[in-house]
Amino acid sequence: MVSIASMSKTPVYLLFSACLAAGPCAAGQVTFHEDVMAAISKAGCNLGTCHGNATGKGGFKLSLRGEDPAYDLAALVHDVSGRRVNVFEPERSLLLAKGTNQLAHEGGKRLDAKGWEFATLRDWIASGAQAGKPERELAALEVTPAKAVFDAGQEDAQLRAVAVYADGSRRDVTDRAVYEPLQTGLVEVSRTGLVKRLEFGEPTVLVRYLGQAVPVRVTFV
């Protein structure tokens, strides 16, 4: 049995082994390489303006746009003696407290306590904050429409994103993909991929999901 005294000196990620020995821990059906990495990207934590910066932010650095999941796992779980995750009280994890702005956060609120990103991170921490093995390899990202032209009567367009895996399986990731307009002032894009025209033109929207990125040209004439 792990004593209270020893717990105070032991990193959280090492204490999880004691949890396994004692019995099942609270578990969520999430994976690090797909679900957690998608949640971090969706929240914008790994952008160059945030913790994806070359030097990080506030002593916390992630790989730019999730390019190195192994590095990110170490930063989340092992860095600063494992203080960013709390497998015993997941919702009190520093990662979640900062993300929801319960604790002062330079980047402001990044997580909605009722959103899927928060739930994904919480459940992953509750299950032990483990890396696990990727269940399937992401082979491609399909975005529709890949290119579209709209006349003056249409002011918005819905993008759809589907992840295609090496085993042939597919998953609709429209709500999990990240949408980045590459030109400012022409369109605005919702978190769920709805492109709304601000001005006439030919804006390009970059759609990202994990390691895949697809540029989409949407023309309003």
Which descriptors would you attach to this protein?
single chain; alpha+beta; 4-stranded mixed β-sheet; 3-stranded antiparallel β-sheet; disordered N terminus
Commentary on this structure:
This protein is α+β, with helices and mostly antiparallel strands. It has six helices and ten strands, in the order ααααααββββββββββ. It has helices at residues 4-7, 12-22, 32-42, 69-77, 94-99, 116-126; strands spanning 138-144, 147-150, 156-158, 160-165, 170-172, 178-181, 187-189, 194-197, 204-209, 212-220. The strands form three sheets. Strands 2-10-9-6 form a four-stranded mixed β-sheet. It has a three-stranded antiparallel β-sheet with strand order 1-4-5, with no helix packed on it. Strands 3-8-7 form a three-stranded antiparallel β-sheet, with no helix packed on it. The longest helix has 11 residues, at 12-22. The N and C termini lie far apart (69 Å).
Compact description:
The chain is an alpha+beta fold and 221 residues long. It has helices spanning 4-7, 12-22, 32-42, 69-77, 94-99, 116-126, and strands at 138-144, 147-150, 156-158, 160-165, 170-172, 178-181, 187-189, 194-197, 204-209, 212-220. The strands form three sheets. A four-stranded mixed sheet has the order 2-10-9-6. A three-stranded antiparallel sheet has the order 1-4-5, with no helix packed on it. A three-stranded antiparallel sheet has the order 3-8-7, with no helix packed on it.
